[in-house]
Input
Amino acid sequence: MRSHARQPPLPEEEYGSRVLFELLRREPERARADVVLIADMAYLAPKWPAVYTALRGLCYAEITVRTAKSDLHSGEFGGAAPNAHEELVRLLAKLKSPDGKINIPGLYSAVRRPAKRELQAWKRLPFREGDFLKHRVRAKALTGLKRYSVLERLWALPTFEIHGILGGFTGDGAKTVIPAVATAKVSLRLVPDQKLKTVERQLMAAVKRFAPKYVQVTVKFLHGADPATVEVTHPAFKPLDQAFREVVGRGTVPARAGGSIPVVTALGKGGAPVILTGIGLPDDRLHAPNEKLDLGQLWDGIKVFRRFYELLGDMKG
Output
């Protein structure tokens, strides 16, 4: 008897938080609070806690190319029949140049470069490009738009990434098939002032423009969110800073994040300030094999947030 292992379900937050959005729409009183604390973020470096002023948005899609009614034999048809994988790869290459520029017309028009003051503050952060490459990326080189700093590329510029390609034959052994259908899972990270609906239209138009006339191409949008910006001037940020100073020995520094938390904007609609902070470390390997959480960070975090709530209660009292 053969057993079939079930794949674990995707976490709700990783698939757009649809249930949570619907709950907040139906019961908005759940977001009425003095403060919304999201402790999902990381230190900038050991002993360097942070509060985050911006999150990138997300546009996640599937691009599908069809070249024929069915797969074909490469001996009978190779050299004359179009190959869905080839057409998809060429299309993807047109959407992003080797230098990292995204070739989606209009995409960069809403991108606003960080102010000089913010850029200067980033230079004082404990970030070293060489360490980032060696210990976090663990590759031979960094890529992207070289005229911008690495932190600008990570925090203040949109991205286009290919997450997976499906189609054709990928099993054990050999099968000489010309695939009729190929699909790429892709995403764009969006930065402040970009809008998800606008980027969806821009991506759709670019795909239609770059695809050859003899293929059918479709774009299916799976989920997404607008970027989020957070003002860190609310009085509630002061007890958090004090709590970190008392427990860790250093207060928080403002930074941006390259990731996305779609529900942030919805949680702030009730008027409560949203605090983005956390206890992770930059080398926790999020979404990668051997993802970790340092136990020392966990114990410190318990102390920090307990103290934060004490100080917040004193302030409210």
Notes: The first strand starts at residue 36 and ends at 42.
